[in-house]
Amino acid sequence: MTFDNAGVAAMRTDPVDVRAIRRHFAFPRLGRVVTNNAASTQPPGELLELYGSLGPGYENVHRGQSGASQAMTALFEQSYDTIARFIGAPGRECIALYRNTTEAINAVMYSLLTEFRDGDNVVTTVMEHNSNYVPWYGMCREILPRLGRRVQCRLARFDPVTGELDLAHLASLIDARTKLVCCTGASNFLGTRPPLDKVRALAGASGYRQPNGERRSYLLVRGRHSQHLGRHRVGPSGAHAAGPGAVP
C-alpha cells in the first residue's frame, strides 16, 4: 500500500504469486489444508524465527534499566516505524498497537465516548463482524443513556441477492447528526467488499460538526483495506495476517 502526497492510501494491484507466499509457511509441507483465517491464521516462518531470536535477550519493555531492557525497548519502538512503512502510513504517529481488532475498535469507542451529543447517531452495517457492531450497540443502548444522552445506532442493510452493501440505504441513514460511520473492509460472512471510496464520500459529506471544527462524519473501517480512505481510522488485524503472535 502506498500514500499519495495528501496521505491517501492506494493499494497496488500487482499479481499475487501464491506459490511464493506458501513457501513462507510450514503447514503446506506437512500436507495440511488450513482454512481457518477467521479467529487467527498460520504464522509465517519469519515470525517464528523472530520470536526465537528475541527469546534469549527478552526483558521488560519501558520498565527496566538493564541493557537487555533498553535493547528490547528500542526494538519495540522501531516496530512502529516498520509497520508504518509496511502499510504506507505517513508516520509512526498514525499507528496504535492493540492485541486484536476488537480491542482496537473498543479503544476508538471509549476515545469518542464523551464527544457524543444528545441526538447524535452512529451508522454501521449488517455486514459487520461483531467487533464493529457490539461496541456501538452497547454504547448507544447501555452506556450513553446512563450519561443522559440519547444516541441512535443505525444499521445499513445489504442486497440479499448479491451480498453487496446497499449504498442507497446507507446514504439514507447518514445525516448531519451522524458522528461516525463504521464499515467493514470485507464482510466475514458474505465475502463481499463494500466500495469504501463511496462510503468515505458519504461520510465526508454529512456536515456533522466535529469538536475540531471539521464538518464531516468520522469513518472507521474494520479489517484490511485497499481503497482511498485518507485521514480516517482503520483497524487491520495482525492475527489474521500473520498469526496470533503477530501483535504482542
Describe the structure.
There is one protein chain. By secondary structure, the protein is α/β, with parallel strands linked by helices. It has two domains: 2-95, no CATH class; 101-241, Type I PLP-dependent aspartate aminotransferase-like (Major domain) (Aspartate Aminotransferase, domain 2, 3-Layer(aba) Sandwich), CATH 3.40.640.10. 33% of the residues lie in helices and 12% in strands. The protein is built from eight helices and seven strands; from the N terminus they run ββααααβαβαβαββα. It has helices spanning 18-22, 45-54, 67-87, 101-112, 134-146, 167-173, 196-204, 238-242; strands at residues 2-3, 9-10, 121-125, 152-156, 178-184, 218-222, 233-235. The protein starts with a strand and ends in a 6-residue tail after the last helix. The model is unreliable at 1-11, 225-232 and 237-248 (pLDDT under 50).
